Amino acid sequence: MHIETPKKTIAKSDKEVFEFLTDLQNFERLMPDTISKFEILNEDRFLFALKGMPEIVLQRQSQTPYNTVVLGAASDKLPFTLTADIKALNDKESEVFLSFQGEFNAMMAMMIKTPITNFIGTLSENLSRI
User: Fold this and answer.
1) Nearest to residue 1, comparing CAs of 107, 124, 85, 96?
2) pTM score > 0.90 for this model?
3) Minimal CA–CA distance to 10: which of 98, 70, 71, 81?
4) Measured between alpha carbons, how far is 29 from 31 in angstroms, rounded to an integer?
5) pLDDT at 116
6) Among candidates 105, 54, 101, 109, which has minimal Cα distance to 80?
7) For residue range 34-88, what is the model confidence (pLDDT) as tens digits?
8) How many whole angstroms separate alpha carbon 61 and alpha carbon 66?
9) Distance between CA 60 and CA 22 in Å, rounded?
10) Does the CA dihedral 73-57-2-22 come out positive or negative?
11) Backbone phi, psi, residue 125, to 5°
């Protein structure tokens, strides 16, 4: 399953956006209002839970300075990645879009598509306010 958010223009340089996203503590500011738990586990991992959903642990998988940050599920039960692609527009603006990539059976994909789409949409919207 592949889901992408529309591109968002952010009034920050690509470097500022990259540095914001590589500090995992900042993800708490991007989470939906329905967040019930957020905890930094180490410099590369954090745990979060939304009301009515199980806890998910995300870990940093890779990063390319000022261009890409890739987080992935720490569990093999729901294997997926969440990627932020950052593109400089000028010295004070950048464009960011988020993409979700996961391997799920058809039943699971049908159940999680709408909540995941809403979740990454909220992350994207909140990112435009940093």
Assistant:
1) 107
2) yes
3) 98
4) 6
5) 92
6) 101
7) 999 999 999 999 999 988 888 999 999 999 999 999 999 998 888 999 999 999 9
8) 15
9) 8
10) negative
11) -60, -45
